Amino acid sequence: MSGRTSTATFRSRKPSVHAAREHVKAVLVEWKLGPLIDDALLITSELATNALVHAPGIGDRFTLTLRRRAGVLAIEVADSYQWAMPELRKTGDPLEAGGRGLVLVDALSANWGVRPRDPGKTVWAHLPVAPNTAAP
Questions:
Q1: Residue 1 confidence (pLDDT) above 60
Q2: What pTM was estimated for this model as a whole?
Q3: Closest listed residue to residue 62, CA positions, set 75, 80, 45
Q4: Which residue, of 1, 14, 15, 76, has the greatest Cβ tally within 10 A?
């Protein structure tokens, strides 16, 4: 099955990361994409946390969009911060508390990237949907 989309908006508050994860889990269960839940939840956590910590934009919300298209689940987090685009840090202090979010996204996803929008940006990651995954 292709062509499903789910969008939810969350306040830029720490509890929203948990709420975003719960939303992703519910949608993936409904779409019968259970095998993707663990990776999707971790990616969602990292992208939503980055939106909170690194994107003090003009709004106080971020938008999470899930798209199922042609064998791919796209996870997208959009915020209103437009002055700095996230970059993958290949090196870093392993004792540092942060800085590994996009490394995890890079490791778990088939690909990921950033696209500007007005205002702000959308950070996205793709997870492949196995061909034998049951269609909703």
A1: no
A2: 0.85
A3: 80
A4: 76
Segment 53-83, tens digit of pLDDT: 877 666 789 999 999 998 999 999 999 876 6
Compute the distance between CA of residue 26 and CA of residue 55 in angstroms, rounded to an integer.
26
Residue 116, preceding peptide bond in cis (omega within 30° of 0): no
Domains and CATH numbers, the chain: 4-128 (3.30.565.10)
User: Would you put residue 75 in left (φ > 0), alpha (ψ -120 to 50) or beta?
Assistant: beta
Q: CA–CA distance from 60 to each of 10, 44, 56, 79, 102 (Å)?
A: 9, 18, 8, 9, 22
